Amino acid sequence: MPTKKRVIHCVSDGTLPGEQEIFQPLLDAGLDVVFNHLHSIHNEQTVIDAVVGYEYVIAGTEFWTRNVFEAAKASIKMLVRHGVGMDNVDMDAARELGVAVSNTPGANAAAVAEHALAMLLALIRKVSKYDRDIRNGIWKRELSRSLSGKVGLIGFGAVAQSFAKLLGPFPVEIMAYDIFFNEKAAQELGVAYATLDEILAECEVVSLHVPTTPETDRMVNDAFIRKMRTDAIIINTSRGTVVDEPALIAALQENRIAGAALDVFEHEPVEQDSPLIKMDNTIVTPHAANMNIDALRNVAAQCVANILDYEQGCELRYIVK
User: Which range marks the domain in which residue 59 is found?
Assistant: First the structure.
């Protein structure tokens, strides 16, 4: 009997409710599925030890370096990114070794947008500060602010569009900048195109929705922040490397901007001595915007569809060039 092809899921231990049913089509197609949670493990050898011998890999944020691809090249046919960002994947190595790479754009967009809104409201209404204070024996009420004025979206992909939809009931004017601006979506959502400088100069809230590229690496630097309003808040649910953290810390400490809501950091886990986790004008979460049952099911289902497309010789959806 021929040996079954194998799939390793590096982002789950198989306990997500409903997950076994989602992966049943792979079993029906004659593939074995193994769950081995490697999410956020960045040690090359640990990744190599886990993935060698598998034809299909569902990858999280573990580092897929050239060494990992070289070690797995005898078996690996396809890597499916459980999410969108590809900054942890050596795409040159994948191409040279003939490994197909796909991702799951939009599958967790609603969950990430919800998280961005939750962080924003918790920050401006001081919910997290009140919670900390009361747990520390402090009963003190302070003035807060409403979600109003102008909101600027830097990047206007699936997450930004979902965020704009959630902002619909609030009395805000939404502006967006993207080098590939989706005019149809903007019109449907009541979003106005703006330049980057216009967003920084006019918006009380600036939300980041960009991938990691050479152009976006630490784009939120001192010069960027100095163009912002002093009452502005930054939200980052995209990638930690988009923000120059020392520049952001300095701006927050000097009250040059009002606050920051951060789900991602340059180094994760974030260092425990980072000023970002000690300030009252920040709210921080552990890269958890996508940790939502419905979103994880959606992403898993798309991963399964991508693998079946490849296995059955169909046109590949969401292939990363």
Answer: 6-107+292-311
Query: Which of 21, 96, 268, 271 is the catalytic position?
Result: 268
Virtual torsion, Cα 224, 228, 232, 236, nearest 10 deg = -20
Q: What is the side-by-side strand order in the sheet with 6-9?
A: 32-35, 6-9, 56-59, 78-81, 100-102
Residue 317 lies in a domain: no
DSSP assignment, residue 243? B
- Tell me the pLDDT tens digit for each residue of 213-222: 999 999 999 9
Residue 287 falls in the annotated catalytic set: yes
In this model, does residue 260 exceed pLDDT 50? yes
1, part of any domain = no
| Alpha helices by DSSP H, the chain | 19-28, 44-51, 66-72, 91-96, 109-124, 127-135, 158-166, 183-189, 196-202, 222-226, 245-253, 293-311
Instruction: Judge whether 318 lies within some domain.
Output: no
Q: Is 268 a catalytic residue?
A: yes
Q: What is the CATH number of the domain that holds 237?
A: 3.40.50.720
Is the CB of residue 205 less than 8 Å from the CB of residue 236?
no
Q: Active site residue: 239, 245, 297, 311, which one?
A: 239
Residue 321 lies in a domain: no
Q: Find all residues with CB under 8 Å of 24, minimum gap 6, and list them.
A: none
Residue type, 160: A
Same domain, 179 and 204: yes
Residue tagged active-site, from 9, 209, 287, 297: 287
Between CA 230 and CA 224 the distance in angstroms is 13
Q: Whats the size of the chain, residue-wise?
A: 321
Angle ∠(232,201,264) on CA atoms, nearest 5: 45
Distance CA(216)–CA(218), nearest Å, equals: 6
Report the percentage of the chain scoring pLDDT > 70.
Answer: 99
Tell me whether residue 317 is one of the annotated catalytic residues: no
